[in-house]
Amino acid sequence: MLKRGLLFLLVFIIFLDYGLAQDSCLAVPQNPSEEQLNQLITESAARIWNTYSQIPKYSGDNNEILKAALEGLENLEPKPKYAILANYKKEIGDELRRISSGGSCIDDYSLHETDDCWNQDALCVEDRCVKFENLGWREEVLDNINKLRDQNPYARHSAALKLTEIAPLEAVPVLIKTLERDLGEDIQNLILITLKQIASQEAVQALRRVSENDPNPFLRESAKLLLASLTPTQTLELLRGEPLFERIYTNQKLSGFSPTEKNSISISVYRYLLKRGSSAIDFEIENTIDFILDKRRVFENEAIFGDDKYVIVFSHEDPQMQPEPIKEFARDRGVTRFPTITPLKGYASKTDIIDTIVNSKTYGETVIWSQTHGLPDYICLREDENIIGEESCFGFRYDEYVDILLQRGSLDEIILIIDSCFSYDFAEQLLEDLSRKNSPSYPVIITVSNKGRLGYPVFLSSLRRLYLRDNEQLLGSHIYRAEQYSFNKQDSAVFFSENNNPPLEIAMNSLNPSECGCTEDSCPIEPVQGTTS
Question: Which of 172, 355, 365, 416 has a Cα-to-Cα distance from 48 of 20 to 30 A?
Answer without folding.
Answer: 172
